[in-house]
## 1
Amino acid sequence: MKAVYATDLSAASDAAIETDTCLECLDRIGVDTLHLVTVVPANVHAGTPGIDHEKRRRRALRRYRETIEAGGLEVESHVVRGTPHRRINGIAETVGANLTIVGSRGKRPLENRLIGSTTRNLARTTVVPLLVTRVERQTDDPALLEGQLFRRVLYATDFSENAERAFEAFSYLRHATREATLVHVETPNSRQPASDGAPDERLAELATRLESWDVDATVDVREGDPADEILTAEAEYEPTTTLLGSRGQSRLRRLLLGSVSESVVANALGNVFLVPPERTA
């Protein structure tokens, strides 16, 4: 598997790339090549008096390369200019990546929007699964909040086609997953037809599949606001990563990402693994 690792060469990027457990988790799920992508925004000038930005980029990328290769993965570097999320998506398509990874600082007090514009735009436009890794805030030497990326997974589903596609990610995540909690949130407008089976029964079927892969699985059916309940479940179960599809049952254009997915990506305490719909011709 190939993964695009978007980095701005900041201390937060250092924390993610130089965490051994993070690289080990990627290796376990089948990632053998990392494409490091640094995007220089088009409105940023090439130089600043007294600072050699190009030299700093080369030095940081060389250090990342040495760390990643020491972890047993191959690595290629790309330094490009343009709009970050567009260039990252473009490179992911060009190299045939199976996954894009981007870091995001943890929560800021008194904020509703807790992720940067690049992460948010990637979540809305990515054509491959997107892993958002959480990094500590308000420290000069940040660390990943959870380096064991996929050890404990919270999977949220509304039983939509895209949610089923997200579940299929367990086909490779299972090699690094020991526990999974499967959550469905019922709302008055989301009751499933009786012919589809009760939610707890459908979750139990998924749990049986995971247990056949030696993943301990539990199910949890809740009622209320989906985003709020998923975030509450995350706080209760303390997963290392929350897994969900980027588009639910709504077909409204304004919910392309889906209000639920957007809220989870923005407000989750830990890592989030977002799976987009399958591309159509």
## 2
Amino acid sequence: MDQYLQLCQTILANGAVKDDRTGTGTKSIFGYQMRFDLTKGFPLLTTKRTAMRLIVSELLWFLKGDTNVRTLIAENNHIWDEWAFEKWVKSENYNGPDMTDFGLRAAQDEAFQQIVDEQMTIFRERILSDDEFAKSYGDLGPVYGRQWRSWPSADGSSIDQLKNVINSLKNNPDSRRHIVTAWNPSEVDQMALPPCHTFFQFYVADNKLSCQLYQRSADVFLGVPFNIASYALLTHLIARECNLEVGEFVHTLGDAHIYSNHMDQVNEQLTREPRDLPTLTISSEKESIFELVTSDISIEGYNPHPRIKAPIAV
């Protein structure tokens, strides 16, 4: 994962200081590309522990076209909770403590962090136990899963982009149209978070499947390690579905940034030596990738450095 560490070093050395939507501030560069040969191991970051179980359950959530955090919370996956929680605390039905700018305030105030944690626990419990509450506040709008599997067309029907790409890969592998996009301009304003990983394309050569992702916005410390592993896994899954081997994952970044409150964590990570990459195992018991559950996918030989905590910018 030297490519990832080089990205961090490049931003620290050459990044422009910029304001951002969250009010946190970043160091940022524009236009950067990394390439990962998937035949040489699974690109899961080793300079800090990265939770593969969360990556797997999120990707399967996308593949099933789901957009409600209830599914993820039931699997103890909380990476989307803040955006659903924000929807609740900004609503007229919320009557708890003031949660204005809760992400920034919690990062600076341990006592307030405890209050946020208490309200988040209440929120998660209601999402799991109350169908109407989950419907109102658990749904994130037409985010990735909806666009991948049920893109709304002009005639009122929907387009399953992922199934179409799989069929295209099987029947016309040399096509240059193996594309899935999550960026739907007509629905961006309805999404809890507009897609950061916006567009991906597959390519077949020598019976190997490669994938290139364009990511418009890249949180380099927290998000990018997840994105690398998620799209590497997606490439493996689509290759399996199409009876192909894996080739490369190519990661093209637009605005690649390190948040100002992640600088110490990045510098700590840069002191660590990368370790050998793990290998990916996918159960052969399920015929289709759309039947897989989280426990069907695992990694072996993962020996990372310890986790490094950092606040998420909401």
## 3
Amino acid sequence: MKRRGILFMAAGLAASLGTGLWFSASSAEEAPRLVAPPTLDSRPSAASETAVLAGGCFWGVQGVFQHVKGVTSAVSGYAGGTADTARYETVSTGSTGHAEAVRIRFDPRLISYGRILQIYFSVAHDPTQLNRQGPDSGTQYRSQIFTTSAEQARIAAAYVSQLDGAKTFARPIATRIAPLRGFFSAEAYHQDYLTRHPTQPYIAINDLPKVAALQQLFPTVYRSDPVLVAGR
């Protein structure tokens, strides 16, 4: 049985028993918080820009950014490996170099790259976790920023240094930064997963709180109606 299938069962059991056992696996995680915006940010120079971010299971990361104003598309997929291994069954082995990632297309006239990163570090995931997020572990769940330009690389590196220097988190940031070599869309059944399965225990416990945190901490950029892959 796949790891997430086991986790769904464990989540359901914990919920039915009311024991809170599900939360013990991620008790060391940093809670969502509003971190400081980057001091170095981009200026709009085009009508569209792309960010590719990895932060654990792509279901939650996609779900968060689908609720952000200015985001025109958020697609779950794989980055860091090659096209021939960009399949869920293969990526799940942790041996492909891929991370579960989300390609975010946004209008920089409405939201900046720095703001995208602020949301990423604040609510989309815990950037101090190394090769894991919550109940999921393996290199495919690593925290990584795949940059699409030299400017993005400068902004991302400066922001990580800024947050670490300010000791924003209790532990050092584990997020990697590397140029994007290719992004490969995930299978159709992974797209819009949070929206299509809001009552699934894994989603309800691990991912819906991220969307709630986005609404609470970033009310000016939160959109109630998500921009869906199925609606492109």
